[in-house]
């Protein structure tokens, strides 16, 4: 096996290092984050850093990049306290990826990338109409990460919108039913295919497959 030390990684070319470190965690969720600024101008950007933090209460975390340059998503979330997480599906991967381009503050990524903002139930942040899984969150806490200047945003789940074919009887989601995709590295997109499901693990019983 290849063995890379911290010194090796730091010595790599910047782009090589970016690709390597962004890939070593494996597959990551592909999510479009929908926000609006204080005047209502809509913004959407792709993130692969959304993580489950707890179910009671329902909390999700998201890591933003350092704010040494303008970060429209972060600024909008701070301004309104609201944002949406929208799953990316196979049919609009290219448009979703294009939202990572450096658009100006005055330009809507929705319009530039061919995506459709939709507002639901009076929530201040836009959802992505093309997405079959949308989550509305309210910012609860910011956790600065001093080691690299990033910020962990923690939001409480206020709304969940699901296509009927996604929600299963036990509350789990069939992501393959809507051709959900995931991300590897910075720019690799992959299909999601179910492999197996197992019952709650109990010591001494061995793994019990249920699906």
UniProtKB/TrEMBL annotation:
The keyword Flavoprotein applies. The keyword Flavoprotein applies. Keywords: Flavoprotein, FMN. Residues 23-175 form the Flavin reductase like domain. GO terms for molecular function: FMN binding; oxidoreductase activity, acting on the CH-NH group of donors, NAD or NADP as acceptor. Its cofactor is FMN. SMART domains: Flavin_Reduct. It comes from the Bacteria. Pfam families: Flavin_Reduct (PF01613). PANTHER family: FLAVIN REDUCTASE LIKE DOMAIN-CONTAINING PROTEIN (PTHR33798:SF5), FLAVOPROTEIN OXYGENASE (PTHR33798). Belongs to the flavoredoxin family. This is Flavin reductase family protein. It comes from Hymenobacter oligotrophus.
